[in-house]
Specification:
- This protein is an alpha/beta fold.
- The protein folds into 2 domains: 100 residues, Up-down Bundle (Four Helix Bundle (Hemerythrin (Met), subunit A)); 190 residues, Rossmann fold (3-Layer(aba) Sandwich).
- The strands form 2 sheets. Strands 5-4-6-3-7-8-9-10 form an 8-stranded mixed sheet, with helices on both faces.
- Strand 4, helix 7 and strand 5 form a beta-alpha-beta unit.
- Bound molecules: guanosine-5'-triphosphate.
- The site of guanosine-5'-triphosphate has 20 residues, from helix 6.
Length: 310
């Protein structure tokens, strides 16, 4: 499946809410765009977890372009799509590769967000591009996490650096980058233990891990990816701001987008934090990761609404 059909399948739940509800606004021949209509659209957009600012920006745009006119569904959808694309615009390349030497990617997030799965997916993607990969098992608290990552490394043909339980994760990060340098490995992906954004000591630890990577290879980490569970909707936005402060996040991997009707949170993250969504997780297999492309995301989100009226 190409990106479009995969993301369309992944966005089924969000799309269902959005498309059915918007279509329902147009039961008769066209609809007058007045305050009542705008209020109804506001409610629908809000339910997809787009957040206050994005919802207001979209409603305002519809008002500005169409207020006082009787229009068809397509015209409203066109305005929504154009504005959404504008709100989410971001650089095309998901990963900022190092100019030379290994590219170092640090991965963080709350417990159960989908970090390990996302690391496996990223490793799989890099391997399919012919890149060599080393994983750093930085979750030294949980033996199971190390085990799981080791299984993925074997399966995907990646190297792995592990350390005895209780080793400081910054040490594992440092050693992983050292190995990448020594063995001329293209990409080092450093796992970190899950933590809550309210645990200030653990958040400070992220700053230390980051510093250790920079010490092992100045200029690294090249990417610090925060894995967010899309099903948490707006909660993800507050998580992201804390992680961004502590770890200097460069982008988001939005996991579990397939399991939620809250896919609109993508818009909110971009708007409120300025952080690009770099990848989306669309299932549990190591192949279920897609680089995020805002234009295709928007087209996929609204594809059913137009198909139904075609
Ligand atoms: N449907 C779906 N499930 C996912 C996705 N990503 C991860 N999962 C599932 O979410 C659960 C948690 O994923 P993990 O990768 O173990 O999460 P983690 O953040 O590493 O967890 P901790 O190490 O406990 O902090 C697992 O059951 C995964 O299979 C996704 O994109 N879609």
């Amino acid at each position: 499946m190409g990106f479009f059909s995969r993301i369309k399948a992944g966005l089924k739940k969000t799309g269902a809410v959005l498309n059915t509800d918007i279509r329902d606004l147009f039961k008769s021949e066209g609809r007058l765009i007045d305050e009542e209509f705008l209020e109804e659209v506001r409610g629908i957009l809000f339910r997809t977890d787009m957040g206050y600012d994005s919802t207001e920006a979209l409603v305002e745009e519809i008002g500005k372009k169409l207020r006082g006119r009787v229009v068809q569904l397509e015209e409203v959808v066109d305005v929504l799509k154009a504005k959404l694309k504008e709100l989410m615009h971001q650089p095309a390349s998901p990963i900022e590769y190092a100019a030379s030497g290994p590219t170092v990617v640090m991965v963080c997030g709350v417990n159960g967000a989908g970090k390990t799965t996302s690391i496996a997916k990223l490793a799989s993607q890099f391997r399919s591009e012919g890149k060599s990969v080393v994983l750093g098992a930085g979750d030294t608290f949980r033996a199971a996490a190390v085990q799981q990552l080791t299984i993925w490394a074997d399966r995907l043909g990646a190297s792995i650096v592990t350390a005895p339980s209780g080793t400081h994760p910054a040490t594992v990060g440092y050693q992983t980058v050292e190995k990448a340098l020594a063995d001329k490995i293209d990409v080092a992906i450093i796992d970190t233990a899950g933590r809550l954004q309210t645990q200030s000591d653990l958040m400070a630890e992220l700053t230390k891990i980051r510093a250790a990577l920079a010490k092992a290879l100045p200029g690294s980490p090249h990417e610090v990816l925060l894995v967010l569970d899309a099903t948490t909707g707006q909660n993800g936005v507050s998580q992201a701001s804390k992680f961004a402060d502590a770890a200097g996040c460069t982008g988001i991997v939005l996991a579990k987008l397939d399991g939620t009707a809250k896919g609109g949170v993508v818009v909110s993250i971009r708007q409120q934090l300025g952080l690009p969504v770099k990848y989306v997780g669309l299932g549990e297999s190591h192949e279920d990761l897609a680089p995020f492309n805002p234009d295709e995301f928007v087209d996929a989100l609204f594809s059913d609404v137009l198909a139904a009226t075609a």
